């Protein structure tokens, strides 16, 4: 899994789901640096969120033909789109996307349903899959990979333009590498 490179909104801590903000120049540079780390793996499928920031990260990392997967979009933040957690907590103390409703956005159940489809697709592949996506959605995807509730994604901090590897030890799903 690769989280997209840095954007103006990710740098500012703004919740970004459907707003299509471009990568910052440093986000593009770091995305390019992923190319050598990912080139020799031999992925059988490469999937990307349809959002520009994820598709551009995939392109710069050497995967311009990544398949767009709608289910990889970021958590829909509804009324909190473009708003920081600090700003939300001014009216909803203790708010997190993991523990509180998102007015006009997705519920954790809705996020779980779509990410379960991604997990099934990855598990059905005959070899390694590379996924380009977003912070909260990829954290939730890791939780679902481990057969945990989506909300357990709160325990997996994920920085921009990092590589994380999900895998198996015998029959148990595992996290092999995180936030590298």
Q: What is the secondary structure topology, with strand pairs?
A:
Layout: E1 2-3, H1 8-12, H2 25-38, E2 45-48, H3 52-60, E3 67-68, H4 85-89, H5 108-124, E4 129-133, H6 135-145, E5 165-169, E6 172-177
Parallel strand pairs: 1-4, 2-3, 2-4
Antiparallel strand pairs: 5-6
Helix pairs in contact: 2-3, 5-6
What would you note in describing this structure?
It holds the Pfam family His_Phos_1. It comes from Nocardioides caricicola. This is Histidine phosphatase family protein. InterPro entries: His_Pase_superF_clade-1, His_PPase_superfam, PGM_Phosphatase. The protein has about 180 residues and is an alpha/beta fold. The chain has one domain: Rossmann fold, CATH 3.40.50. It has helices at about 10, 25-40, 50-60, 85-90, 110-125, 135-145; strands at about 1-5, 45-50, 65-70, 130-135, 165-170, 170-175. The chain has a four-stranded parallel beta sheet. Strands 5-6 form a two-stranded antiparallel sheet. Strand 2 (about 45-50), helix 3 (about 50-60) and strand 3 (about 65-70) form a beta-alpha-beta unit. Helix 2 (about 25-40) crosses helix 3 (about 50-60) and helix 5 (about 110-125) crosses helix 6 (about 135-145). About 35% of the residues are buried. The model has no long low-confidence stretch (mean pLDDT about 95).
């Amino acid at each position: 899994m690769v989280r997209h490179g840095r954007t103006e909104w990710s740098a500012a801590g703004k919740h970004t789901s459907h707003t299509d903000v471009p990568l910052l120049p440093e986000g593009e540079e770091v995305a390019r640096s992923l190319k050598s780390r990912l080139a020799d793996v031999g992925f059988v499928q490469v999937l990307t969120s349809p959002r520009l920031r994820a598709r551009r990260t995939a392109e710069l990392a050497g995967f311009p033909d990544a398949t767009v997967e709608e289910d990889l979009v970021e958590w829909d933040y509804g009324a909190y789109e473009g708003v920081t957690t600090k700003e939300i907590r001014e009216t909803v103390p203790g708010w997190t996307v993991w523990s509180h409703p998102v007015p006009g956005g997705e519920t954790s159940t809705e996020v779980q349903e779509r990410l379960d489809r991604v997990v099934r697709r990855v598990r059905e592949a005959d070899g390694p899959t590379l996924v380009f996506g977003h912070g909260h959605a990829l954290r939730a995807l890791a939780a679902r990979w481990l057969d945990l509730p989506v909300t357990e994604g709160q325990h997996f901090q994920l920085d921009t333009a990092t590589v994380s590897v999900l895998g198996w030890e015998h029959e148990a799903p595992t996290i092999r590498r995180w936030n590298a």
